[in-house]
Each structure stands twice: as C-alpha cells, then as structure tokens.
Amino acid sequence: MNVDFLLSVVAAATPLLLASTGELVAERSGVLNLGIEGMMLVAAVSAFATEDITGSAALGFAAGALAGVLMSLLFALLTLTLLANQVASGLALTIFGTGFSALVGAKFVGIALTAIPKFLFGIDAVAYASLAALAGVAWFLFRTHWGLVLRAIGDNQDAAHALGYPVVRVRTCAVMFGGAMAGLAGAYMSLSYSPLWAENMTAGRGWIALALVVFSAWRPLWLLAGAYLFGLIMYLSLYVQGLGVHVPSQLVSALPYLGTVVVLVLISSDASRGRRNAPACLGRPFHAAS
Amino acid sequence: MESDTPLLELSGIVKQFPGCLANDHVSLAVRAGSIHALLGENGAGKSTLVKIIYGILRPDEGHVRWQGREVEIASPRQARALGIGMVFQHFSLFESLTVAENIALGLDHPAERVGLAGRIVELSSQYGLTLDPTRVVHELSVGERQRIEIVRCLLQKPKLLIMDEPTSVLTPQEANVLFTTLRRLASEGCAILYISHKLDEIRALCQSATIMRGGRVVGACDPREKTTRELAELMVGSAIKSQAARTAGGDGKPRLVVDKLTLRSHRPFGTNLEQITFSVASGEILGIAGIAGNGQAELMDALTGETFAGKPENVIIDGVPAGHLDPIERRRLGVSFVPEERNGHGAVGVMSLFENAFLSGNVGQTLSRWGVILQRRTWDYTSSVIESFDVRTTGPAAEARALSGGNLQKFVVGREVALSPGVLIVSQPTWGVDAGAVAAIHQSLLELAAGGAAVLVISQDLDEIFALADRIAVIAAGRVSVPQPTNAATIEQIGLLMGAVAHAA
Amino acid sequence: MQLKIVARGERSRFWSYGAPVLAVLATLVVTGVIFALLGRNPFVALFTFFVQPLLNQDGIPELLLKASPLITIAVGLVLCYRANVWNIGAEGQLTLGAIAGGGVGLAFPDAPAGLLFPAMMIAGVIGGALWAAIPAWLRTQFNANEILTSLMLTYVAQLLLLYLISGPWRDPEGLGFPQTAEFSDSATAPLLIAGTRLHIGVLFAPLVAIAVQWILTRTVLGFQLRVVGYAPRAARFAGFREKRLIWIAMLTSGGLAGLAGLFEAAGPVGQLTADISPGYGFTAIIVAFLGRLNPLGAILGGLLLALSFLGGDEAQIDLGLPNAVTGIFQGVLLFMLLGADLLVSYRVKLIRNAKPAPVAQLAEKHP
C-alpha cells in the first residue's frame, strides 16, 4: 500500500473527525447545530490570520478553537436562552460564517504558510489529537457521571430537569465543546490540510461532519470508522478517474450523503420497536415550566 | 412490628388551590412496619396530600411529624434524606439508557453510585424484583420499569415507601410479585403508604386505611374488617342519588352498537380493550364510569375513528358497520364527538372559534364547497353556537385559548350538539369546568337525548354519571361491564368500578 | 436583578409585526458597525449597500429578478413550515428543477417556443417535486427526519448537476468548461419587458404568493395544513390525514423550488452551470422566516434579501469589499430575527431582588 495514500486519507479524515466529534457531543445533549460549516470557516480564517501574524501554529489552533467557541456561544444564546428554532439558527450561523470569513480572509488570500510539522510516522500531532479527543469523548460519555447526565438530557429533558439537573447549562457546555472542535477542524484545514486561505475552503466538510454524526448513529466507535471512510471517499473522488475506474467522481463524492440517508432510514424505521438511537430530544427547545 | 409513636403523622393539613380546596384539615398516621392504604376517587385529594409528604408541595396549614418530631419537608431531596421514598404512578425514565444508569441518575450522593450494579442485583434478588442492571429501558415491560423505580427507592433504605396507584399498570401476576415484595418490606420495618382505588387489593394487603373524599378524611379503618361494599360506600358516599324517572325520547332503536371491540393500545402506559360490547338506543344516555387510565382514551379513539377497530362490525352506527371509517366518514353518518382534552385535541388553542367550528362542523353543516371554506356560513354557524350555548367571548374571531375552560368546553360541546347528531359521544364533558357551565352542558346533553339522539357519556365523575345516565356501565382494565339501569345501580356496581377485575357478564 | 423569560398568554400582535422590523433595524446597526470596523464610513457603506443598487439604471429590474426565485421558493417553504414539515432541501429541489427543465430544453432546442418553454416549466416543477418526494416518502414510510434527508439530498443534487455538466451534457464547444450549451431562443424564458432581463418568472412570484396565501387562509386544504402544524391530535380528531398533507406540502414546495430553478437556468443564466443559484434555496429559508411564515410577508422578505444580494455586488464594485458582505447581512438578519421572535411569545421581565422560587412551585409539574 502506498504510504502517501494512507497519509492523505488521514489528512482528509482528521478535520471530519474533529468536527463530528464535537457535534456528536452537542447532539447527544439534544442540540442540533447546523452551523458547523460556518464555524469551521471562521475558525479557518482566524487560525490562518493568527499564524500569519504571530508565526505560531499553536496560537493559530488556539485562535481557531476560540473562534469556534464564540460562534457556538452565539448559537447557544439564540437557541437555549432565547428559544429560537435550532434549524434556522444553525443555518444563520453558516450563512454568517461563510460571509464573515470571506470578508476577513480577503486580506490573506494568496499567502502561503508552511504546513505544521509532522509528529510521528509522517502524521501530524493534530491527527493524533483527534483520535485522543474521540477516545476522551467516549470515555466521558460512557464512563463518567456527567457524561451520563448529558446523555440523559438528550433522551428526556423534562425528566432530567425534574431530577434537578441543569439542562440549559449542560447543553451550553456541550455546544461550546462542539464549537471548539469545529474550530480545531477549521484551523486544521487552513494550517495543515492545505496551508492557505481561500473563500469557502471547507467546501462542505461541515455538512459532511453533520452527516457523519447521523451515519455513526451517535456512537463514537462508528464515528471513527465513518470519518475515515468518508475521508477515504473524499480522497478517492479526486483521483478515481486517474485510477482508470469509469465511475464519475461525483458519484463517489455523493456516497457519504447517500449513505447517511440510508443509515437514517434504517435507524428511524425501527423507532416503533423502540430502538431509538437518535437522542429523543434532538432539536426540541426546552423551557422549564415555572 | 409496630411501635407506639407513628412513624409519620399528619395533622390538620390544609392545601388550597385557586378554586379548589384540595386538602381540608386532613389528618393521617402511619406506623412503622404497616401497610396503610390511602383510598379515594379521583379528585379526593390523595395526590396532593402525598405530594406534601414528599416535599413537592408545602401545606398552607397543619403539621407534619416524622418519628415524633415536627418537620418541614421542603423538597423531595429532603424527604429522601429523612427516609421517605416515592414511586409515582407515571414514572419518567430514560428510554435509551440502562437500568443501572437510570437508577444512578436518581441517586442523591455520588458515593451511592459505587458498586451500583452489584447492589441492584443483590436487592432485586433479595426482594424478588428481577432486574438486570445492564438492560436498556425501552426493552422492558411496564412492570419491569416500575421495578426500576422501586429499586431506586429501596437503595436509599427508606423507612416509608409511598406507592401511587402501583398496580394500575401491572398484570395480575406482576401485581402479586409486588405484594410479596411489599409484605416483605413491611415485615422488615418499612412502612408503606399505598394509594389506590382498588378495594380488593387494599383488603388483601393493608392493615389500616384512610379514606378521603372531596379533600376531607371521611373514614379510617382496618380494611381487613370491612367488606368491599362498605369500603366502596365510604369512598363514594352512601347516598346514591335516586333518579326521577326521565321520559325517554326516541323510539328506543339502538343507534350506536359496539360489538366485541378488542384493540391493542399504542400508548406508552396504555390499556388494551377486550371484547367491549354495549349499545346505546335512541333517546337514551348511557354512562360509562371509570377511573382514568382504564381504557377510556383507547375506547374514545376507537369510537371516533382516530383508531380503526379490528373489524367494521365492531362499531355500528345506525345499522351501518363503521369500525373501518375515519372521523369524517363517521360524521357523515351523523356521529359527533367531544374528546376528553379540549386543548389541542377538541380545539386548537391558537385558532379562532370560527376556525375551530370548522374543525368538526364542516361535514355536518357543509361549511365548504369545492374545497373552499364558506366564510359567511361558517361565521354564522359559529355565532349561533356561541349564542345558543351562552359562550362568554368577544365573538367568533376570538382565539380559543382566550376563553375560560368552562366557556371553551361549552363551545366545544355546543359545536357538536348544534350539528343535531344522531349519536353523540362525549368524554369527560365537564372536567375542569365551573358549576354554571356544568349545568348548561348537562342540560344540552339531556335535551339532545330527549330529541331522539343516542348519547354516550364517558366520565370519571360519578355524580355526573348519575345525573345524566339512563343506564350505567363501568370500564375497568379495558373491559366494560353490562350496562344496568341507573336507578337500579348498586354498590356492587361501584365495587366493580374499584375492583378493576375482569368479570363475568 | 435578573432577566426572566415568561410565557405570554397569547401571541403579541404588536410584536408579530414589530419583531421583523426590529430585527431589520438592529441588523442595519450591526452591519454599519462592521463596515466601520472595515474602515469604511458606515453611512456611505449602508447607502451603497441598500440604496445605490436601486438607483442604478437596471436597479429595479435586477431587484425583481433576484427576488422572484427567493419569493417563489420561500412561499413553498412557508406552506411546508406551517404544516411542521421542515424542508431544508429547497436548494437541491431547485437544482433538480433546473436539471429537468434544462434537460428538456437542451433535448429539443428547435422546438417551437410556445411548446418548448411550457414543457420546460412543467419538467422543472416535476423535477423539483420528485426530489422533494424522496424526503416525503422517507418521512411518511420510515419516520426519517426530513431535515437531515432533504439536506443530504441537496448535496447529491449538486453533485448530479456537476456530473451532467462535466460529462454527458457538456457543451462540446464550451472549451472544456463544465457547462452545457446555451439554451436556444425558444428554450429561454420569455421576457416581460424587452431590453431588460425581466422574464415571466418574475410575474410568477407574486402570483404564487397570493395563491398560496389564499390556499392557506381560505381553503380546506390550507386549513388542514395549519391544523396539522399547530395540533396534530386535533387534526386526527378532525379526520385530516397527516401523511397525505406531508406529501402535499413537500411536493408543492419542491415543485415551486424546481420552477424557480428552471427560471434561473433558462433566464438570467442561460445555460446549466455549476452556479445556477447563489444559495437561493437556503436564503429562501431566511425569507420565509422574515416574512413570519406568511406568503405575503415572503414577498417583502424576498425583496429585502434580493436587495442584499445586489448590495453585495455594489459594495464589491464601489467599496472594494468582497461581496461576502451579503452573507454577513443575511446571517445577522436571521440572528436578529430569531432573537426578536422571542418577544412574540414571551415577555422579558427584569426582576429586582429575585427571591429564589419555592421549590414546591417548581416541582408542581410532577404528575
């Protein structure tokens, strides 16, 4: 197997894994954040600008994460405090983020940065960090009490509230974590994957990350598999013609989305049998009756 | 194992809600190691009292003494700290989580979570409440889910366990297992406060009972020394109102026939219907009495057409098999219905009365032509309903939710009655309605019957049933008893209501 | 002191109209601030963005041209959202409409215009409706969330378009660019006013809005859709069939989006390219909300957002700002709108010396 090929797949999968890990946590708590694409873009431009100005990739990643957190806070304010429609709010975040990043990034078009150094076996540190993050999230969700509380809130927000758990606070933290991860993903795009800035450079990866979370049926292990699968597909779609296979590259690119639809159908149609994998409260606003 | 000082003593508890005195100087004593029943119909004040004990509500007046000391229980957490546990009638669990996880979420102290799975297994086998901590809740039966709640209470070593209508969701076998567990607990010194309306169970299980009616304590006794009849009498009130003979309107032909209706429920805490058979004749009012949760909602759905019956012949309207017809088609046959819930079911709160009239009036009054709503006609219809039924409102354009409960109910009932249906089916006609509106609604039902319609009233309110019905039947556990003429209705009838036991015809 | 959010008894009529106005004003302020931060005079910038486009020679026609697909699509979305069907895939349905209608136009370039263009329109509607049928089917049959399915299909639609214009439908004389041949004259949307780019699609938009408004308020079908959206149980009580209504809502909005897509492709663009739509399908969602889920409100919302597209172009030319400013304006507007919307159903109270609420009352909800 071609080592370059493997490395390319890792590079393609890492931003997907980062962003979807964050969204997994948010959705497990019951919040659907469609604004990932916007958060990634703002983070990408922030990270790029920061590294360009300061020369430090680490600061760049920090800036990206911060940008993601701030944007997600805006989303949390709208949906959790002001009880706005989650779908519309997420879309607003994306539309805003796309425009905002283009605006800020105008100055940085054409600048080239050096990619972040490789850490081990030709793979950079962030890729390893993404694996560690996923493992951390899995441990948190399934082995700690507050991870359990988070899952409970996504399952039955009213029962959780009745038991005295702070629904809004937990969800806000989950959303902020999602923002931070989306931020790291965006930073990875502009600092490592292709170390430059271009308008709309995430090219829909935010939406793919969203699809990934559903595709994985909200389970971390499947998320890992899915991220690498989708990363592989994204990579292949660029080169499928070159491999002599007579399949249109667009069909290959469409597979992640089609696959997600299939998985969604499979999960949902079993709802009557109670096999509920989607957090039952996903997307529903919570107003404590008082 | 009873000591002299009662474990829990309530004296003079008063709790007032707007428009309702839920607890009127209630006193109660529960001894350690005893199983004490709290008996009464819906609305008697039992659940309010129990919420006070568990710290969900605070009493306006009165004292609560625990182990001889006066206490103020300000929250469920405090109640638990004292040693009071409660298993609610409608438990809310986290469906996608395991048994152990559900229990862990309900515990107060992190230390309790250590070794939880093991303790669950130990407890469950100790008390015969088989529970596998690793199973996911949505796979469990209702009886198993209740065990989760019970085990959660037991883990905190309660001195008093309050059980709210525990067997309403259990099969007879599961109920027996529960009784064994409760007796075991009592023998170990735990006191049980057992809320129920099922007289047979109470006589079998409990050593003492407090009976409530209308917010007051009307009796206290040892249920083992009383007959079911005597208990029912205490619960319901001794005088069954005798009916002035009502002139029956109509020719007595059956207009609504329900024949061997059997249906599985789709609801989470639902009741399956079994072989329900009865008929309502022209000019007659049939009352089906029963405590909520015994299949009334499922029966109503089957009658309105929101759920289809197994066979068309299960529901026959004026001779036409209708079990497979949807609500619109049944309305075409001349049936009207008033569902139990006026908010969100019988009417849409955010819509105007005008639009709400259209909701069910379209068919009977031809309020549309070629798919277009006839504005003038609908408006006039709405106005006439408002006027005839004395609905206090600003007019047909008023939003339904702006009306008071009584007025909205008058409108909803009036909307149906104004369609001059041949058959009217109404569930809980005066729930949450002020006295004036109650009288008006009852009057309209009586007049409708006098005009030859067949009227079916499903209600939890026995007074209402006795005021309206020519014949009475009882719905319990998804079965309906054979209707009896009201003025011949006996206490045994009521006992059946309470017993929730499958009966022979 | 704390802020407390308390539900109102009924929706505030004042804020129903006031919220969008407040949102627009707040957005103008924020946009002005952003312009200032970018080193431009905010008033000049706002003028350039909002007023200048209208003063240009083609100002109004261009405005109408951009507004019409927004309005057409948004009206269909209003129908859906009122019925609680969350169609997010209008962009994909638009694409399929362009593909289907455009395909017919490319297949029969020499057919007479009187036959060809109507056929293209019908194909466009069918294409969009079919694409919307997929999430409709998945929801009614499998209970699959239509938000996610319609969204995923948006990307599939875009990829399908890319495939067609890079492959089988690529213009042989197009120098290898991914685009189809230009539509023949008879396959081009007929113009309303010669000399402008105003095509008949522009007329469709307000007509469709009026028609859907009428349907929603005056017909049994519209009534059923609204009841299903407000209270599904009441809809069942009334005998309305939820599945049928979901299908109708999705197919209608898909068809309208498809029609809009066809008009874009066969109108201003003139061929099938990758950029038939600058995200109209998503912007239309904002238009629907801006119009308070009312078809007539969508007309106003469409005009405002169309202006924002023009403003972005204008800002690019006159002020040297990237026309991404449009995205910022639209995003901020939607934020403000969603936030202001709270005031319709809830009241915000300032409480001094807040006493902790008695636990008893908080737990009152327990069964």
Mind telling me which CATH architecture of chain C this is? Orthogonal Bundle
- Tally the helices of chain A: 11
Order of helices and strands of chain A: HHHHEEHHHHHHH
Low-confidence stretches of chain A: none
Summary of the model, kept short:
The complex is a heterotrimer of chains A (290), B (505) and C (367). With 290 residues, chain A is mainly α.
Describe this structure in words.
- The complex is a heterotrimer of chains A (290), B (505) and C (367).
- Chain A has one domain: ABC transporter involved in vitamin B12 uptake, BtuC, CATH 1.10.3470.
- Chain A is an all-alpha fold and 290 residues long.
- Chain A has eleven helices and two strands; from the N terminus they run ααααββααααααα.
- Chain B is α/β, with parallel strands linked by helices and 505 residues long.
- Helix content of chain B is 33%, strand content 24%.
- In chain B, α11 (353-365) packs across α12 and α13 runs parallel beside α14 (435-450).
- Chain C is globular.
- Chain C has a single domain (2-352), classed as ABC transporter involved in vitamin B12 uptake, BtuC (Orthogonal Bundle), CATH 1.10.3470.
- Mean pLDDT of chain C is 86; it is low at 356-367.
- Chains in contact: A-B, A-C, B-C.
- Chains A and C meet through α3, α4, α9 and α11 of A and α5, α6, α11 and α13 of C.
Write the layout of secondary structure elements.
The complex is a heterotrimer of chains A (290), B (505) and C (367).
Chain A: H1 3-28, H2 36-54, H3 57-81, H4 86-105, E1 118-120, E2 123-124, H5 125-143, H6 145-155, H7 157-162, H8 167-193, H9 205-215, H10 220-239, H11 249-269
Antiparallel strand pairs in A: 1-2
Helix pairs in contact in A: 1-5, 1-8, 1-9, 1-10, 2-3, 2-4, 2-8, 2-9, 3-4, 3-8, 5-6, 9-10, 9-11, 10-11
Chain B: E1 8-17, E2 20-30, E3 35-39, H1 46-53, E4 61-66, E5 69-71, H2 76-82, E6 84-87, H3 99-106, H4 116-126, H5 142-155, E7 160-164, H6 172-187, E8 191-196, H7 199-205, E9 208-213, E10 216-221, H8 228-236, E11 254-263, E12 273-281, E13 285-289, H9 296-304, E14 315-317, E15 320-321, H10 327-332, E16 335-338, H11 353-365, E17 368-369, E18 372-373, H12 375-388, H13 405-417, E19 423-427, H14 435-450, E20 454-459, H15 462-468, E21 471-476, E22 479-480, E23 484-485, H16 491-499
Parallel strand pairs in B: 3-8, 3-9, 6-7, 7-8, 13-20, 13-21, 16-19, 19-20
Antiparallel strand pairs in B: 1-2, 1-4, 4-5, 9-10, 11-12, 11-14, 14-15, 17-18, 21-22, 21-23
Chain C: E1 2-7, H1 13-37, H2 42-55, H3 59-82, H4 90-107, H5 113-142, H6 146-166, H7 201-218, H8 220-230, H9 232-238, H10 242-269, H11 280-290, H12 295-319, H13 325-345, E2 346-351, H14 359-362
Antiparallel strand pairs in C: 1-2
